[in-house]
User: Fold these one by one.
Assistant:
Number 1:
Amino acid sequence: MLDKLHIVVGEVRSPVLTNSPSGSDEAVVFVHGNPGSGDDWVPLLEKVAAFARVIAPDMPGFGDTERRTNQDFTVPAQADHLEGIINQLGVTRAHLVLHDFGGPWGLAWAAAHPQHVASVTLIDTGINRNSHWHGFARLWRTRFVGELVQLMMSRRVTRAIIGRKNPALPENWLNQIVDHAAPWGTKRAVLQMYRSLDLAVLEGSLTGPLRDLEVPSLVVWGADDPFIPVEFAQRQLASFPGARVDIVPGTGHWPWLDAPDKVTDIVLPFLRAQFDDAPSDSAGISGRDVPTTTVGH
């Protein structure tokens, strides 16, 4: 059973979904992206919670966190907020499951705290993207144009765009994602996030430290992701050379919502292997094996 805690880090309150507010110091930490919240992870959380402690926060600016006009939504600030949550919950071994902007946030934390990283799962995210920005990101990064775009993005418009670009997304999840994007505080956070981030600098600063982690790693990607094209899945091997890469056909930017059974069949064996006494390659997945690419399930 999942409960929702409220944790304050630097005077910013974050709701956190978990199955155990205390206990084991090893946990699977799920970090959402833009727009999103910890609630988006429920289809995976409920399955992983059967064998591990799980934690899924709403990150600052998103979900039900506090939103302030003077708040810092840069990658370092978000990584610091994540650190505060992890520390307060007593986690010393974190299995990161990251999506979208949760990738830069979580990986920045990982690079700064390598001794606490147990494994990494990237879902349609990463840092080795050759400075790729999708169309909306380029608009958001442009002053005045970004503000105008955000003003025009009503729920109806947002729903039409996301639904058209992600046709496999179930209706209930589409509605939830549209709701996530609606608050003006979130729109303002998005503008700051995209404008403050230099992808080339991020890649240059994190690729080496992440490669040095040498932890079990998994990359999962929606074959039809309209925002971060599927060819970027293989590029994550620059930071995680031993990662297994799985491409999920018929899915978009939120593959675990589009096809929960397919993604569960990929992610659960990987995470369960990290908690088993047997070596992880007994489950056919190891962060130190020669990387393989599996298409479809």
Note: Residues 260-275 form the longest helix (16 residues).
Number 2:
Amino acid sequence: MVWNASGHAGQALQPSRWRLGAVLWLLGMPGVVAVVGALLPPLRAHADLLPLPLWALVLLSGAQTAVLLALCVAVGTVLAPRVSLGAPAVSAWLCGAPVGPAVRRLWRPGVAGGIAGAAWLWALSWVAPAALRPSDPAAAMPLAVKLLYGGITEELLMRWGVMSLLLWLGWRVVQRGQGRPGRGLVAWAVVLSALLFALGHLPAAQAMAGVLTAPVVAFVLVGNTAFGLVAGGLYARHGLEAAMLAHLLAHLLSHALS
């Protein structure tokens, strides 16, 4: 879908690529800081085993994630408009247009996706393999990391960056870059990006479980792919902010239920 200043389908409202990319990168950086901060306690506990000083490891980890975020933001900023994807509320704001109409169009689907995601996360908590349940609740991932990194940074990485790239590649190969991407191509990009989103959670699962057993892999892939489909569908139909809103609410509401 292409967005105009009033938030309706039509002529795309496109701010400067540099401004849009810079704003989206800055939007994702608090998540980078939060996830790096969450690494400090376990790193301090094993400081004597680290190959580098703690400050150097923290700096390298943050820089690596920040560069990856910048790359994905740049990819999405260049390719998303070409395949009728966008960030309608942020784009309207940057163009000096009213933001309200875009927000009114995306908040309902975003909230619905967030409620569905929270219900899914709550249900998954009852069937999670024992290896993925922290023995110490205090050691669980902080809510700030789930909201800032999961809700915002991950959406910039996986939907804005990866899904936009996948859809653009399919559009160039199948439609030779002509017209808007067909529904089949959009569905392909949503599904594949959801699978990659799920695969990206396997390293964290391995760190928690110690070994990737079949139940652990199945749980991680099924659980994250399902939500990836929701977020990808919201991005395709309603814009990046709808996917972010759903991801944020899913973590916030599931935390309240736990």
Note: The two ends are 36 Å apart (CA to CA).
Number 3:
Amino acid sequence: MKGVIAAIATPVTEGNTPDIARFLEHARTLLETGCDGLNVLGTTGEATSFSTTARQILMQAAASALPCERLMVGTGAAALGDAIELTAAAADLGFSGALLLPPFYYKSVADDGLAAFVTAVADATVSPEIPLYLYNFPQMTGIVWSETLVRHLKDELGPRLAGLKDSSGDLAYASTMAKIEDLAVFPSSEAVLLDARGGVFAGCISATANVNASLCNRVFHQGDEDALAMAVAIRDLLGAAPLIPGIKSVLAHNYSDRAWTRVLPPLLNLAKSSQESIVRRVNEIRSRTSSMLRNC
């Protein structure tokens, strides 16, 4: 997988379960309007707020209705058994990659312990195998996949360890990881897409690609610097608000569907005034995009 990958948001029913119909509609829209792939059930998809059963129901629906060669899925969990169960399910369903958070409850764990966790997941999911991607998000997990550890795992697992998603925002870290041979590195910001176009990174896995996929596509596939500026402006705007409720507010506007504003506890919806402000400001950036395209 490479290019523009949206960390796709998960719509939620009134009963706090994944809303399959709305999810599939949104997934198809993203794939048709600029995304090269989708990361199902990542942080933006509120994965860790769903039960393993709910996650597998959504995984089954996605794999049945969407092109699996364009899908990776978050299978990380604090419990080793849950991570193995989800990763094995992803492999059986044909996903192109499994994105693994570190086991995030215990902090200050040794690299050897983290290596044992990943190796156990890999050893238990060999038939069929699925490429593994490490997910580095220390602001959430309190754990960093260190360069030493990643190199050790790459030596041990070979091509089975396919890549790493970095949501730390530390481009020096991401650049260091990108120097590891045959490791596809995906920062979480659209800002790196020109670098990715030049081969430094494999692409980006971005939350805000939920709402700016076409701009990201123009950057990665055409080298459009104006589109990059606008994509980053949307990212900065949404990043200044609670990110997931902000993205869902924009999606609710895009689809004229208030159900999209639902988030799972402990997250909270934005106040209506905040939702309206975010939508208005995103639309202002989009209007500049439309003007830019007319003048091309």
Note: The longest helix spans residues 272-295.
Number 4:
Amino acid sequence: MINQFRKLNPVNLVFLLAYTFFLRIAIFQETHDQLNFDFLEPFARLLINIDLDHTFTPYTNIFIAALLVYVQALIFNRVVNNHNLLTKPSFLPGLMFITGTSLFMPFMILSPALLCNFLLIWIIDKFLKLGKSANSITTIFDIGMIIGVGTLIYFPFMAMLIMIFLALLLFRSFNWREWVAGLIGFITVFFFLAVFYYWNDNLSSFYQIWRPLANKFPSVFKINYNDYLVLIPVTVIMILASLQLRENFFRSFISTRKSFQLLFFMFIIAAASFYLKPDFRTWHFLLCVPPGSVLLAYYFSNAKKRWFYETLFVLFVLSIQYFLFV
């Protein structure tokens, strides 16, 4: 299967779509209560009042989520190939993206984090272009606005602001205008939100939006480890990928090295940002899928022993299906 997706063959578009629904057999077979879909954060409802909470039936919700994941996988695949992050263009990034978004049941329904992945893929593309442009002020401003829009959808997405400064450190020499541009872009979005709050004589509530920023990072976690056993094969593949990346690190182009460093930091920040949402759900970690998928794809793109990497991937997929059904 891996060998098939190592080729940039149009027929893989059909295989990817079939694979997307194959991984969702378990959730389609379950009996579901009403699945709520919070399209926006409560504080943004004043700006855009669209009620989608109970619009879709459970199966429609799951079906639309699957189609969105498929579209995201194709966009993500193109971004990774355009920036030459792997040895050669392939459908492996899309394959790993779909696999990553199928690890847990909560990943397979409509959620704010799923929508934010469109924005995350967009800013990954813009970040990777930073080292190739002479003047990046406009790009950084755009990234700041995209993060602002993402924050309206899902508040912890605001943590991606840190990525602006890390990307500038990695790809650009210091220019204070670029460092300020991202913040101005982000503030622009919330300036318009503040104006709406002011017009509605509710400015005091606007200040409450920022209260989660004062949350302390939790020191105690309540975890049911049985729910996360499926992450064992993911961890094994990521360790193998890291060893392979380390072996090829200094043989790669400087831009490629910096890109993987950027994606590593993005993975960490996406995972750690859960503390900005006191009632966060498992689907929060969908934000880790795009950067994590690149590392998984890197391993399968560079692995040499076919019997080993094909078997490893089959075991990976079977473990996902097993833990979804039990």
Note: DSSP finds 14 helices and no strands in the chain.
